[in-house]
Every structure is written in structure tokens, then in C-alpha cells.
Amino acid sequence: METSQEWETVIGLEIHTQLATKSKIFSGAATAYGAAPNTQACAVDLGLPGVLPVLNEQAVTMAVKFGLAIEAEIAPYSVFARKNYFYPDLPKGYQISQLELPIVDKGHLDIDVDGTTKRIGITRAHLEEDAGKSLHENFHGMSGIDLNRAGTPLLEIVSEPEMRSAKEAVAYMRKIHELVRYLGICDGNMQEGSFRCDANVSVRPKGQQEFGTRAEIKNINSFKFVEKAINHEVARQIEVIERGGKVAQETRLYDSAKDETRSMRSKEEANDYRYFPDPDLLPVHISEDFKAKIKLQLPELPEAKKLRFKEQYQLDDENAGILTSSRQLADYFEAVVKESSCKAKLCANWITGDLVAALNKADLDITESPVNYHRFAGLLLRINDDTISGKIAKQVFELMWQSSLTADEIIAEKGLKQITDTGAIEAVIDKIIANNAKQIEQYLAGNEKMFGFFVGQVMKEMQGKANPAEVNKMLKAKLK
Ligand code: ADP
Ligand code: MG
Q1: For 244, which DSSP code?
Q2: DSSP 8-state secondary structure symbol assigned to residue 30
Q3: CB of 97 shorter than 6 A to ligand 1
């Protein structure tokens, strides 16, 4: 659309992360995913009368960890409030959340988009309980209720409306995802709903200070869908305005099957939650000592690790970024460097190249890699000492992926050892020169491109096993 230049997009995200505690935020019931319905819901989660919630200290610790990692202010005093509304998966009739005094206040996070770094403000992060789930399948016109999720601790992370494109929103969401996994406070499993977000989207004429009216797109559980939902919503709002209409402040739902957003409820129908401090729970006090203790437990964070990788291993920005995208991948890389004592750059290129590609293709995490760091280091050793060429190494890697053999076993079994014997290479070169008189003539007449042809012919004849550097050198000498 020609006119799209005139509009600016404004986005703020509310990200819900399920904290990886063993038990619920206010009860002792287990939080593990996938149990049979209602087998992990105790009297507190069911909202039975007469029970009392007891705050899980682990959830508080995790929230503080997150706060420290985003350089936020940790509230010395925070309060749980009741957010009152009725829904079948919320039997108490209210959700325990935090409103006026959240545990984590003002912080920030830097994102990188198209080579520039941008700081995104984080307004707050508060603790609350998740609701249960309504089940609609196989109930013959009725719905079932599973309260296993009720009371699972959530940290809701609210950003400032400072993102200006879907791309920035995705970069921010990825960064938060990376961070909570580094901190070990959330498993980040988006299919299981451990990490999901609401996207607030508005548009305004470029140059205008005032924000436009926003729509809130609820419960998006993949990076791809966030990007699509926002782009779709931006286009829809621009169209509404350009036709002379007004964007309504409302809650919308993203339908990934149809790639569209639909209205769920308007602001007029929105609930008045009648928040008030929960009389069953004491305010949370965080002492300087407690904060200091947690600070000591913080792991090296992604940003710091990336910087260290660039300095210590002389990696470029891209490789350092990929390798530190998860703590486990970074650990794998460092283990390979240490074990193989090969140049870090060689290790980085192979891990971010062939290994990551194979993992992505098989939809596996580095912790599930069929080739562990030990075997991978064994492969790099053989590239490093010229036993095999890079090209043959790709074949060896593929075979390692499909078996539990080491690189050395595969190289021996398949006879893939690189030929560096100059006599053998010379014999083949002589044969190629003798059989390609016409091409030689062209080359000698100045067609430089023919050189690649000769290299190719020699390599083909030697089944890719000749040392490429040696072939190049000898060919150059012969064709003078
Ligand atoms: P609510 O409690 O109604 O959801 P908040 O003021 O807490 O409202 O804002 C929720 C989210 O919406 C925040 O992430 C904020 O950055 C974002 N937001 C607020 N105003 C706008 C706007 N005009 N356009 C886009 N996002 C916005
Ligand atoms: Mg909201």
C-alpha cells in the first residue's frame, strides 16, 4: 500500500511466563504438565471454602531473579490483590494477582533489529496465578473443566509501548524467552502454554505524539503468530481509519488457521474487576540481603556471554549471537573448543552451520542432539589435522548423525582419509591435463575460469578425497 509510509505502528507486549516451580504458587499441588485432568488440583486450587493460600517462596525468588536480570527496581514491599471475575475455569470467582504494588518495577531490555540496538522499557512484572482450562472436545455439546493448571505461578511481564514494528516485537519476545530460560525460571515451552503473550497494537500518523486507540490480541503462543497477528492487525486498523472509521478499543483473538484477528469483547463490555488487597495473604517484603543472595545465584546472562564469546574466541557478532541463544548451546560450544583444542572459529562455524541446521531440520534442541559434544569434537579434530576435507567432513557428520560411531570409525570404515600423497595427486593431474587438451588451450589463452574445471575433475577422479589445497597448488604449478 502506497500510504503505509504515513503510519507508525505502536506495540506493547504483556508476556505470561509460567514459572518452573515444582508446586503451585499458593498450594502444594504439583505443576507438572500433562497429568490426567483434575489430578493435580487440591482444595486451594478448587477454591473450596475455608482454605488459605500460602505463598511459594520459590516463585518469589524467581520473580526477583528476573527483576535483577533486567536491572529493574525490586519492590521492597509488594501486595497480592484479588481480581474478581466469573469464569468456569476460575472456581474461586477471583484470580490472585498484583495490581498497584507489583514485585518488579521499571526495568529494561536491549533488542537488536537490523543491526541496531534498541532499549525497550519494561513497565513492571507481577506475580499471579494461572486459571484452569475449559475442554471442549468429546463432551457432546458440554464443556469439561480441568483445574490442573489453576494456581500455576505466572510472572506477567509488561512492556512499555515502545516497539514500532512486528519485527521489533518478535525480537523483544525472543529476548525475554531466551532470558527466562537462561535464568532457569521458565521452561519456555510454547506449545504447552508455558510462554504466551498478549499484543497491544495501535497505529498513528507519522509525527503525531499522541497514541492511537489500541486493540489487544490475546494469547498468542508462537513467535511466528505474533508477527503475523500484528502485521494483520496493523493493516486492518489502517484500513479502518483510511475508510473514515475509528479503531475500537477491544480485545481480539488471532485465528492462525485463517490468519486474521476477530473481536472478542469491546472495552464497554470489559469487566470492572474490583481489585482489592487479598486479606488472606501478607504483603511480600524483600530485604536487601535476600536480593544480594539471589544476585550471587544469577548465571552469566546472554548479553554478557555474547560479549565474552566475541572477545575470548574472536567470533563475529552473528556467530556469537547464535551460540549464546541458549545456555545449553553455549555450553556445547565451549565443551567442543576445550575438548578438540581446535580454533574457536572452526568450532563456531561447524556448530552454527551443519549442526544447528541438522537440529532445526529434525526439530531437536541441542540437549537432544544425536551427536554429543565429545563426538563432535572428534570430527573437528580430523578436519583440523587435514585427515579429511571440509567436504568429506559433511558426509562424515551425516553418518555420525545416523549412528553412534565416532568420526575416526567412520573415516576408517568408509576409507575417507584425505589423500595428501603428492605422487598420487600428481598422477591424476597429469591424466586430467592429457585428457582435456581443448580446455588447457582455453586456460592458457587467458580463460581463468577453466581453473575451477580442472580442480573439479581432479577431485572427481579422486572421489573428493584429495587435499584441496594441495590440488590447487600443484595444478597452478603445472599449468604455468
Ligand atoms: P491494561 O491493563 O488495560 O491491559 P495497560 O495500560 O496496563 O492496560 O497496558 C497494557 C499494555 O498495552 C502495555 O504493554 C502497554 O505498553 C500497551 N499499550 C498501552 N497503550 C498502547 C497503545 N496506544 N498502543 C499500543 N500499545 C499500548
Ligand atoms: Mg492487558
Answers
A1: T
A2: B
A3: no
Ligand 1 test: best mutation among 16, 158, 273, most atoms within 8 Å of CB?
158
Q: Of all atoms in ligand 1, which is nearest to the CA of residue 160?
A: 16
**361 is written with which cell numbers?**
531440520
Tell me how far apart the alpha carbons of residues 57 and 77 are, in angstroms, rounded to a whole number: 15
DSSP calls for 403-439: SS--HHHHHHHHT---B--HHHHHHHHHHHHHH-HHH
Ligand 1 contact via 161 beta carbon (within 6 Å):
yes
Q: Look over the chain and give the mean of its residue pLDDT values, rounded to a whole number.
A: 93
Q: Is the distance from the beta carbon of residue 217 to the nearest atom of ligand 1 less than 6 Å?
A: no
Q: Per-residue confidence at 270, pLDDT binned at 50, 70, 90?
A: low
Q: Kindly give the distance from the C-alpha atom of residue 266 to the centroid of ligand 1, in angstroms, as a whole number.
A: 15
Beta-ladder partners of 155:
17, 127
Q: What pLDDT, in 10s, does the model give residues 121-157?
A: 999 999 999 999 999 888 888 999 999 999 999 999 9
As beta bridge partners, residue 76 has none
**Pocket flag, ligand 1, residue 15 (CB < 6 Å):** no
Q: Does residue 421 have a pLDDT over 90?
A: no
Q: How far is CA 1 from CA 6, 102, 168, 213, 473, in A?
A: 10, 42, 21, 21, 56
Ligand 1 centre and the CA of 461: distance in Å? 66
Measuring from atom 19 of ligand 1, which residue has the nearest CA? Answer: 161
How far from the centroid of its chain's Cα atoms is residue 363's Cα? Answer: 13
Tens-place pLDDT, residues 72-83: 999 999 999 999
**pTM for the complete prediction?**
0.85
Query: What digits encode the pLDDT tens for the residues 284-294?
Result: 999 999 999 99
